[in-house]
């Protein structure tokens, strides 16, 4: 019996994804406190972000798509944790899933592919910040081996209120 959902494929992000990735991110900028960006981006403004995630190295961009027709369901990234040289073996990771693709395992597929891609890199730890409340993200990170290491209280202000950010880490 065929699946009711289209097959999901995960691959490295490419420049042709820029418009769809920007639209997905802008949804979270406009509608949620999941990101602390407060102004939407044009694709051209997001281009440096995309180009900072090549197909190799410690800073990656993985994209989940449907097979046919191709629709972007979400993305995951690993980015520099901090700029000082001693932090080079640490990355900050994130996952964004399209609203219509939630609760389908897309986040798990994205993180699994990202961690597989990073397995040959000289990395020691992955860190993730989760704006609270966000039970789905907490469950995803804990299921994939992250553990809570602390919470910054009222660290970001968006939509006229302050938000906490829980920090999680995972060995690589």
Amount of helix? 25-40%
Strand order of the largest sheet: 1-2-3-4-5-7-6
Q: N-to-C terminal Cα separation, in Å?
A: 38 Å
Backbone structural class: alpha+beta
Give the overall shape.
globular
- Give unreliable regions as ranges: 1-5
Order of helices and strands: EHHEEEHEHEE
For the CA atoms, what is the radius of gyration?
16 Å
- Oligomeric category: single chain
- Largest sheet descriptor: 7 strands, mixed
Mean pLDDT across every amino acid position: 93
Beta-strand residue fraction: 25-35%
**How many helical elements?**
4
Would you count the extended β strands for me?
Answer: 7
Write a structural description.
The protein is α+β, with helices and mostly antiparallel strands. It is built from 4 helices and 7 strands. It has helices spanning 18-31, 43-51, 106-118, 135-143; strands at 8-12, 61-66, 72-80, 90-97, 125-131, 147-158, 161-171. A 7-stranded mixed sheet has the order 1-2-3-4-5-7-6, sandwiched between helices. A hairpin with a 5-residue loop joins strand 2 (61-66) and strand 3 (72-80). Helix 1 crosses helix 2. The longest helix has 14 residues, at 18-31. The chain is globular and about 45 Å long. Residues 1-5 have low confidence and may be disordered.
Structural key phrases:
172 residues; alpha+beta; seven-stranded mixed beta sheet; disordered N terminus
Itemize the secondary structure elements and their pairings.
Layout (H helix, E strand, L loop, with lengths): L7 E5 L5 H14 L11 H9 L9 E6 L5 E9 L9 E8 L8 H13 L6 E7 L3 H9 L3 E12 L2 E11 L1
Parallel strand pairs: 4-5
Antiparallel strand pairs: 1-2, 2-3, 3-4, 5-7, 6-7
């Amino acid at each position: 019996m065929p699946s009711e959902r289209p097959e999901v494929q995960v691959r490295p992000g490419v420049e042709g994804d820029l418009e769809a990735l920007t639209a997905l991110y802008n949804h979270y900028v406009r509608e949620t406190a999941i990101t602390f960006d407060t102004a939407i981006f044009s694709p051209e403004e997001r281009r440096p972000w995309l180009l900072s995630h090549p197909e190799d190295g410690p800073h990656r961009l993985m994209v989940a798509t449907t097979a046919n027709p191709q629709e972007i369901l979400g993305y995951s990234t690993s980015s520099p944790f901090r700029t000082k040289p001693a932090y080079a073996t640490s990355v900050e990771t994130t996952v964004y899933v399209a609203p219509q693709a939630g609760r389908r395992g897309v986040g798990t597929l994205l993180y699994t592919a990202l961690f597989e891609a990073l397995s040959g890199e000289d990395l020691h730890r992955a860190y993730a910040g989760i704006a609270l409340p966000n039970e789905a993200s907490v469950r995803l990170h804990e299921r994939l081996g992250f553990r809570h290491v602390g919470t910054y209280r009222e660290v970001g202000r968006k939509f006229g209120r302050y938000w906490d950010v829980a920090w999680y880490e995972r060995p690589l």
